[in-house]
């Protein structure tokens, strides 16, 4: 009985030890600009760097808990228009996403946004006492007419220097791009099989098969798992821009101020990955 009690104590102590933290994510990602405590105005470049051995699919830049900027191209740089937020203190952070989700984070750091000039208000001098009191005007001024807010522009898509004439859909804060117009801009071909409900792409020396509603596809004959499934939008097959960029080796960035999805060509990889997580 004494031996059994001793073994139970050892197992209980071992179960209470903290889980080992992955050494890959410790100090593997950091914000290099702006610095903590910096005063910023206008359009500011936000930059982060990661160690070369950290496997990254894309990087997300966050402001006060929101995530309006993202890129999957090194160096990890985005433009932030500080005029889109009120003056004062704001918190910046960065997240690195890999095949398994978030692999590293950095921040938050505190920056001060100052776009409006500081105007000193001087006290009005006290004049002489009036000889008589002038009664206030009985007629009330007409109420000010406030203009209606301008509608937000639609999301557009730019590939390199060319604007792609296609509608981009925002689904759960993710940009979905149409498959066929993008493939044709890349001098590829897209074929829809109505009987099998499958689209096949031939582009950049790759053959891709995708099924709307399924996260499983094929890339050059190999099975791949997508971050999110493609879907149909009015007869068009649409796919998250980040997943599309990983399949065909395209850089993807989001300009939150202009509401533009920016895509560009990257050097093709030697072999595809089996998982294309977002």
Question: Can you describe this structure?
Answer:
By secondary structure, the chain is mostly beta strands. It has 2 domains: 29-113, Sandwich (Immunoglobulin-like); 156-276, 2-Layer Sandwich (Copper Amine Oxidase, Chain A, domain 1). It is 10% helix and 43% strand. The protein is built from 3 helices and 22 strands. The strands form 5 sheets. A 6-stranded mixed β-sheet has the order 13-14-15-16-17-22. The chain has a 5-stranded mixed β-sheet with strand order 2-8-7-4-5, with no helix packed on it. A hairpin with a 2-residue loop joins strand 18 (231-233) and strand 19. It is extended and about 95 Å long. It starts with a helix and ends with a strand. Mean pLDDT is 79; it is low at 3-24.
Overall 3D shape? extended
CATH architecture of the largest domain: 2-Layer Sandwich
Strand order of the largest sheet: 13-14-15-16-17-22
- Classify the secondary structure makeup into a structural class: mainly beta
Q: Do you know the CATH topology of the largest domain?
A: Copper Amine Oxidase, Chain A, domain 1
Helix proportion: 10-25%
CATH class of the largest domain: Alpha Beta
Query: What value does the Rg take, in angstroms?
Result: 27 Å
């Amino acid at each position: 009985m004494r031996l059994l009690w001793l073994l139970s104590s050892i197992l209980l102590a071992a179960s209470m030890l903290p889980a080992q933290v992955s050494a890959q994510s410790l100090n593997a990602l950091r914000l290099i600009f702006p610095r903590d405590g910096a005063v910023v105005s206008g359009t500011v470049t936000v930059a982060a760097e990661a160690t070369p051995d950290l496997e990254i699919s894309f990087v997300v830049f966050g402001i006060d808990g929101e995530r309006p900027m993202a890129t999957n191209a090194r160096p990890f740089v985005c433009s932030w228009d500080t005029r889109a937020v009120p003056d004062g203190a704001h918190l910046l952070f960065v997240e690195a996403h890999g095949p398994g989700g978030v692999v590293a984070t950095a921040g938050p750091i505190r920056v001060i946004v100052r776009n409006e000039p500081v105007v000193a208000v001087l006290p009005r001098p006290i004049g002489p006492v009036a000889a008589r009191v002038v009664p206030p005007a009985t007629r009330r001024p007409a109420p000010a007419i406030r203009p209606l807010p301008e509608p937000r522009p639609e999301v557009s898509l730019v590939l390199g220097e060319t604007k792609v004439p296609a509608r981009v859909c925002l689904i759960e804060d993710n940009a979905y791009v149409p498959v066929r117009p993008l493939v044709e801009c890349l001098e590829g071909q897209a074929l829809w099989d109505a009987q099998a409900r499958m689209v096949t792409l031939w582009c950049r020396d790759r053959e891709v098969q995708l099924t709307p509603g399924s996260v499983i596809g094929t890339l050059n004959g190999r099975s791949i798992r997508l971050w999110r499934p493609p879907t149909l939008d009015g007869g068009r097959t649409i796919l998250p821009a980040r997943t599309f960029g990983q399949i065909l080796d395209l850089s993807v960035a989001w300009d939150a101020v202009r509401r533009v999805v920016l895509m560009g060509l990257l050097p093709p990889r030697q072999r595809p990955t089996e998982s294309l997580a977002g």
